[in-house]
Amino acid sequence: MSVALEGNILVTGTSRGIGLELVRQLAQKSGGGAHIYACCREPEGAGGQALRQLSAQHPGKISIIKLDVADEQSISAAVEAVKKKVGASGLNLLINNAAINKPASPASLLSTGKKDMMEVFETNVAGPFLLTKMLHPLLQSAAKSCSAAEGMSCRRAAVINVSTLLSSIEKCPETFAMAQMYPYRTSKAALNMLTSCQAENFRADNILVAAVHPGWVRTDMGGEQAPLTTEDSVLGMIRVLSTLSSKHSGKLLDWEGNSIPW
Ligand SMILES: NC(=O)c1ccc[n+]([C@@H]2O[C@H](COP(=O)([O-])OP(=O)(O)OC[C@H]3O[C@@H](n4cnc5c(N)ncnc54)[C@H](OP(=O)(O)O)[C@@H]3O)[C@@H](O)[C@H]2O)c1
Fold first, then answer.
1. How many angstroms is it from 100 CA to the middle of ligand 1?
2. Rounded to an integer, what distance in angstroms lies between the CA atom of residue 56 and that of residue 230?
3. Ligand 1 centroid vs 146 CA: distance in angstroms?
4. At what angle do helices 230-243 and 17-29 cross, to 10 degrees?
5. pLDDT grade, residue 3 (50/70/90)?
6. 51, 37 in Cβ contact below 8 A?
7. Which SUPFAM superfamilies match (predicted)?
């Protein structure tokens, strides 16, 4: 059964691409009581312009929060700001969407160095790890405030880590030739393990944790050749998120709800 997403929802990396579209569609489709915490690195600068416009179109529904997921102090400050706003209601849904792919595509072995590897892991793995760890008490509060009969869902309390088909070790023989991307692939495989660990760790709290592949999407990262628009990818992802339950916790799914092997 598909139900509208509700409550306090936080999305990272919302200045453009899939993150911006997630905020747009969540503002349109979530229930009346929903509030979206749209995180970006530059709320007041050029990077936050599209978000500010979106926020003006949905008065009272979107709060823009400054967050650089590669910076621990920035994560702490963002968590404090969100904590003050949500109070005892806690956080219902965290979407770890922000990520980078370095060096620029095609990111072959020869063009990749240690600095690329470290930067990509800092943003794509350490960022979601620390942010989720610091937001865990708020997710626990949201999970506790629902009746025990409710079960796990993205309406109650959930963490969604935006992963990729390219993270799948089983699929690597099929996907390697089209995109080598050593730092990106290994960071997303690590994000999958993070998803699995968080799912086990948070199960007793009734917090659902899943990884979602948005498809190959036409964004700055996905490039112009990508077949999917951000609208269709996010439409699918929100539909999938609305149907998740305990049996999906610890799984990697695509934007159409199909399971992807680790
Ligand atoms: N596009 C695809 O085909 C595709 C396929 C599979 C998975 N994905 C995944 O989908 C997610 C979104 O990708 P996208 O295509 O929308 O990418 P994108 O167009 O490159 O946008 C990336 C977003 O992440 C933000 N970001 C990067 N580093 C950040 C940091 N340190 N702190 C906070 N925000 C940061 C960017 O903010 P700035 O504007 O400040 O740089 C931007 O808002 C990523 O997790 C990506 O791995 C994408």
1. 6
2. 21
3. 32
4. 60
5. low
6. no
7. NAD(P)-binding Rossmann-fold domains
Residue closest by Cα to atom 32 of ligand 1: 68
Q: In angstroms, what is the span from residue 97 Cα to ligand 1's centroid?
A: 6
- pLDDT value at 2 more than 80: no
Q: Residue 240 forms beta bridges with which residues? A: none
User: What does the pLDDT look like over 199-251, one tens digit per residue?
Assistant: 999 999 999 999 999 999 999 999 999 999 999 999 999 999 999 999 999 99
pLDDT digits (tens, 9 = 90+) for 131-182: 999 999 999 999 999 877 789 999 999 999 999 999 999 999 999 999 999 9
Q: How far apart are CA 5 and CA 203, in angstroms?
A: 20
Q: In whole angstroms, give the CA distance from residue 27 to residue 219.
A: 20
Ordered structural domains, the chain, with CATH: 8-254 (3.40.50.720)
